Amino acid sequence: MSKTSLCIEVPRNYGQKALALANKLGISDKTLEIQRSERKIFIPLLHRPEKNELATLREQVPDFRLTTKVFIEKKQEKKTLGEVLQNRLPPHLMTFVPRALDIVGDIAIIGIPTEIKAYENLVGEAVLKTHKNVRAVLAKASAVTGSYRLREFSVTAGENRTTTVYKENGCTYHVDVAKVYFSPRLSHEHMRVASLVQEGETVVDLFAGVGPFSVLIAKVVEDVKVYAVDLNPAAFELLKKNCRLNRVENRVFPILGDAKHIIENKLLGVADRVIMNLPEKALEFVDTACKALKPAGGIVHHYEFIRQPDSIENMKQRFSEAVEKTGRKVDVFPFAKAIRETAPYEWQVALDAKIL
Ligand SMILES: C[S@@+](CC[C@H](N)C(=O)[O-])C[C@H]1O[C@@H](n2cnc3c(N)ncnc32)[C@H](O)[C@@H]1O
Question: Hey, what domains does the chain have and what are their CATH numbers?
Answer without folding.
Answer: 2-72 (3.30.70.2580), 81-161 (3.30.300.110), 181-355 (3.40.50.150)
